[in-house]
Specification:
Blueprint lengths: L12 H10 L4 H19 L2 E3 L2 H16 L11 E5 L26 H8 L3 E6 L33 H9 L4 E5 L6 H7 L2 E4 L20 E5 L2 H11 L19 H4 L6 E5 L9 H17 L2 E5 L7 H16 L18 H12 L2 H14 L4 H22 L5 E5 L14 H5 L6 H6 L3 E8 L5 E8 L4 H15 L9
Parallel strand pairs: 2-3, 2-4, 7-8, 7-9
Antiparallel strand pairs: 1-3, 4-6, 5-6, 5-10, 9-11, 10-11
Helix pairs in contact: 2-3, 7-16, 10-12, 10-13
Length: 490
């Protein structure tokens, strides 16, 4: 719960917007507070890869001038928002956490960046991530790992770990990440904030560094579900520059939040509550389920029978697309180029060997293998068929329920280096991958802490283009419990 002594950098986005609108604070004051907070905690946290305080302050001054002239652009006007370093921001570094792009400066804005600018947001901070968004811990960044604000020896999740950690630590009032297999929701759960992966195509991918194009989706982090709704309102909508962008009407995502909560039918997938689920995580999620029962929701078990195949399917499809997408980094057009190559083959091989890290190389090799002659039908084509079955499972479940409730992560934040085995790391995404394979909206909401003081989150999954209903359902719990308003002792 916010009090008059809450630091400006820990305000929710909605609270800050109200304070700016009333004139109690200025965007310059708010932005200075966020910048000072980042400078104070970054030596411990390492959530940022780069930042431009001067540019942020100039944007804040422009916002204050607009308000003084009675020309406010809306609730995001003057709010400091950070972006994962896979989203293009004009004239700012765009590294994707990789040495391959260590010196690359983006010449243009991503669509989501442009829309944030049009909403008046103050863009501050390029957040650390697993290299090319490939990882679940932000340990695969080529530059440095990021700590979890609740325990700096533990990981913040990944691949959008820098964005989740920065928000939890007060380095922004909202952030943007990308989610290919859980990369927004898993770090949101591990850092104690809200994270939303929208329906595939709801938010433009133009200007997002591609990992797996049929799975990638940009989405927001916020301290509250309301904050997430406000950011989604600004960034959602059709974009002619993204061929996968949906021509769906953008609803007023905050409208249902302002109305009374409507009891809904909730499904608990049996496959998400079995072996491997940490007992403390299970207990916290069960308490959330009990709350919804008390609210009048009908809670019933459902089955998603192809869930055991999701992980294998994902790591065939995602790596195949990564192999194709990352072929553009060849040392010729842009990105890292090796010194004094002997010939063209040497230029290609050494530039890529020097520029890519171990996890990226592993996934490129795997993806190239499953696409190769003689193996395409056995792996890639079969995985596409299983993907269809996974989506069918979800749609059949939604014939009986309005939303699904599951744990977000099977475990709380683990210690750095604890998941050195790649397969053990991949299992961290077991509950989040299905939504990406099916293209569904899914959101992680904080629901408590372990005895060791580590955050826990539950996940809500909705029907395609069902963000408004999903946000309303999450908001009913979030406004009552406000776990995301607790702050780490940094």
């Amino acid at each position: 719960m916010t009090t008059s002594t809450t630091p400006l950098y820990y305000l929710s986005l909605a609270e800050a917007a109200a304070a700016l609108s009333s004139g109690r604070i200025s965007s310059a004051e708010l932005t200075d507070a966020v910048i000072a907070r980042a400078e104070a905690v970054e030596p411990q946290l390492h959530a940022l890869l780069s930042a431009d305080p001067a540019a942020a302050r100039a944007q804040a001054q422009a916002s204050d001038a607009r308000r003084a002239a009675g020309k406010s652009l809306g609730p995001l006007d003057g709010i400091p928002i950070g972006l994962k370093d896979v989203i293009a921001v004009r004239d700012q570094p765009l590294t994707a956490g990789s040495r391959m792009l260590a010196n690359f400066i983006s010449p243009y804005d991503a669509t989501v960046t442009r829309r944030l600018r049009e909403a008046g947001a103050v863009l501050y901070g390029r957040h650390n991530c697993d290299e090319f968004a490939m990882g679940s811990s932000t340990e695969n960044s080529a530059f440095h790992p990021t700590g979890n604000p609740w325990d700096l020896e533990r990981v913040p999740g990944g691949s959008s770990g820098g964005s989740a950690a920065a928000l939890a630590a007060g380095e922004a009032l909202a952030t943007l990440g990308s989610d290919t297999g859980g990369s927004i929701r898993q770090p949101a759960a591990l850092c104690g904030v809200v994270g939303l992966k929208p329906t595939y195509g709801r938010v433009s991918r133009y200007g997002l560094v591609a990992y797996a194009s049929s799975l990638d989706q940009i989405g927001p982090f916020g301290r509250t579900v309301e904050d997430v709704a406000l950011v989604l309102q600004a960034i959602a909508g059709h974009d002619e520059r993204d061929s996968t962008s949906l021509r769906a009407k953008t609803e007023d995502f905050g409208a249902e939040l302002r109305g009374p909560a409507i009891p809904r039918r909730l499904g608990l997938p049996r496959e998400y509550f079995g072996e491997g689920l940490d007992p403390e995580v299970a207990a916290a999620v069960e308490q959330a389920v009990s709350y919804y029962r008390g609210l009048g929701c009908e809670v019933r078990p459902v089955s998603l029978p192809h869930t055991p195949y999701c992980l294998d399917t994902y790591y065939v499809l995602a790596t195949a697309e990564a192999s194709s997408n990352l072929s553009r980094y060849d040392g010729i057009r842009y990105g890292h180029r090796c010194a004094e190559p002997r010939d063209l083959n040497d230029l290609y091989s050494r530039s890529r060997a020097e520029g890519f890290g171990a996890e990226v190389k592993r996934r490129i090799i795997l993806g190239t293998y499953v696409l190769s002659s003689g193996y395409y039908d056995a792996y890639y084509l079969r995985a596409q068929k299983v993907r269809t079955l996974v989506r069918r499972d979800f749609l059949q479940a939604f014939a009986d329920v309005d939303a699904l409730l599951t744990p977000t992560s099977p475990i709380p934040a683990f210690r750095r280096g604890e998941k050195a085995d790649p397969l053990a790391m991949y299992l961290c995404d077991i509950y989040t991958i299905g939504a990406n394979l099916a293209g569904l909206p899914a959101m992680s909401v904080p629901c408590g802490f372990t005895r060791a003081g580590l955050p826990v989150g539950f996940q809500l999954l909705g029907q395609p283009l069902g963000e408004a209903q999903l946000l309303a359902l999450g908001h009913a719990y979030d406004r009552e419990h406000q776990w995301g308003r607790r702050h780490p002792n940094l």
